[in-house]
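Marked as duplicate of an earlier ticket. Keeping the data here for the record.
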Amino acid sequence: MKERIYTNEAINFKDGSTVKLLGWIHTIRELGKIIFWQLRDAKGIVQIVIINPKKRDDIELIKKIKNEFVVEIIGTISHNEKAPNGVEILLESVNIIAPAVSPLPFSVDDKTPANFDTRLKYRYLDIRRLKVHAIFKVRGAVIEGAREYFKSNDFTEIHTPKIISVGAEGGTTLFPVYYFGKEVYLAQSPQFYKQLAILGFEKVFEIAPFFRAEKSRTRRHLAESWGIDVEVAFANEQDLMDIQEDLLISIFKYVKKSCPNELKLYNIDLNIPKKPFPRITFHEAAKIALEHGIKVDLNSDLSAEAEAIVRSKFDSPFFITEFPLSCIAFYYGPHEKDPSLSYKLDLLFPGKNGLELSSGGRRCTDPNVLIERAKKAGINPDSLGWYLEMFKVGGIPPHSGFGMGIDRLVMMILRLPNVQEAVLCPRTIDILSP
């Protein structure tokens, strides 16, 4: 017997070919003189046909097999236009590799709905459901599409520490960690380290987790998230928007090319964004919100309500630029044309249920300005140690960077109701298991 084939390969074999498959029994349908099994593996589903089961020598074994049993199937190929995917396997023999309990906590074939809490409790079952499985195929494609862009544009991949002594974003969302007798933190961002890295490599990226003690219970917040972080020497905010456009287009193209079946499950016709994305300033965004009766503090970030109004005015990803300096991280400096503004910019996904996908901008390279900005943010400059010293030593080119959320991007592509759906085992203020 040849080596195992996957379900999606069966169509490539001639009628009468003998094949071996391994997988899970997805569904069982008995019609008197014929039994249909759907066999599922990581590549898809194929139909197994058992003719005249009562006359078979292995009928007692066949009767034992239930949904989600892991089995080895030996059978012959039969092309049939009426069968799922145009091919079925006529059963020669079956071997039970591992049984499963019956009944299951919920139906893996999607016939019986289950709430997210129940699905998460049995995540090892939930990921066998076709639509959930599709989420993580798309997630993998998002990352591969990003890597394809970086590889084609001479970026160097870096890996930064996730145990840090000071937070880049301030102290309110830091996770403390016991570390050899002293308190340190889980990294909120690779910000300081990717700025360090561009001094040797100029164009760097990292795909990694980051941690924020978010106490919010919303559809968009997680305590542990994954992001695509980028930093580029000699780049300004215009260059940064060009990079983000090309990166997002690369990701969308890769997902559309490699995940047609997964997108079809969600009835998604993935439109590739066109360059250039629309660009408005923070003050222009605030004006849109004000015109709809939403109060806006011009010294603070847009509220969720104001941002939703602005997103509703666009049908493609778009940028908001020139955020107030008073409401952003200390490593952004004042704008040349107006010191009350900054070079920070956000990339947002449009529509009522859209979200901020990335945030970034041109960084401040003046150590004196950084010290004053840190003080205003409630950060003791002495705690910044090597980071501030790096700017005092000098040789720091102008540079810009951004972080793009992978979880949110998957959520937006598949129009999922909650970012937790896009994460294998999400972590929030309420969720720590599995």
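See parent ticket for discussion. The longest helix spans residues 130-152.
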